[in-house]
Amino acid sequence: MSFTPNPPTSPAATHPCSAELTEIEPNLAGADLAIGIAMARFNKDIGEGLLSGCCHELRRLGVTDVTLVSVPGALEIPLALQTMAQTGKFDALVAIGCVIRGETYHFEVVSNESARGVTDVQLATGVPIANAILTVENEAQGEVRMIQKGAEAAQCAVEMANLMKALK
User: Fold this and answer.
1) Residue 8 DSSP label
2) Does the CA dihedral 7-8-13-17 come out positive or negative?
3) Is the pLDDT of residue 35 over 60?
4) Share of the chain above pLDDT 90, in %
5) In 3D, which of 22, 71, 53 has the Cα closest to residue 130?
6) How much is the pTM?
7) How far is Cα of residue 3 from the mean position of the Cα atoms in its chain?
8) Which stretches of the chain are assigned E, i.e. beta strand?
9) Averaged over 88-107, what is the pLDDT?
10) Residue with the larger pLDDT of the pair 16 and 29
11) Closest Cα to residue 127, out of 31, 35, 29?
12) How far apart are CA 109 and CA 100, in angstroms?
């Protein structure tokens, strides 16, 4: 049995819903958005690099209303995010931190539970959260990724805030 692919066509033209499909395009306009950031102080240099990348990108996207809170470590971030989300003041939030693998199981606990906590807050409150808590093997990996990951988190926060507004 042989397989002959269909000639290339646009995905929208062949999609079964194409006649009634309405797509909400990504929107990275941040001028009217309020963004909150919760940053862990543990592994502070990488956290500050993440924050720098995030804030630079938020400014580039037009966001001027940014609030920063700092907490001791990654496990404290979800509670800070939850409290911020419950205020109703923020269109989106960003979680910033870095967990570096050590010689014990603690790395897995902190990595998994901080990620779970961030997701739980997002789902419980309906406020989008960009998770920029890096989990890396060593400090060098974090330093290489921090600026880019911070910028990506800013983009994610703005895009998701705009999407949530468009869906309501």
Assistant:
1) P
2) positive
3) yes
4) 85
5) 53
6) 0.89
7) 41
8) 34-40, 65-71, 92-100, 129-136
9) 95
10) 29
11) 35
12) 12
Give the helix ranges, DSSP H, for 61-136.
77-86, 106-125
d(CA 131, CA 124): 16
Nearest CA to 152 out of 130, 134, 122 is that of 130
Count of CB atoms within 10 A of residue 167's CB?
Answer: 7
Closest alpha carbon to 77 in 131, 146, 35, 143: 131
d(CA 19, CA 15): 9
Known catalytic residues are 106
Question: What residue type is assigned to position 41 of the chain?
Answer: R
CA distance 24 to 167: 9
pLDDT of residue 105: 86
Identify residue 69 by its one-letter amino acid code.
V
CA distance 126 to 76: 20
Burial class (CB in 10 A: 0-12, 13-18, 19+), 99: buried
Cα gap 122→92, rounded to integer Å? 9
Percent of the chain with pLDDT over 70: 89
Torsion of CA 24, 27, 32, 36, to 10 degrees: 100
pLDDT of 51 over the 70 cut: yes
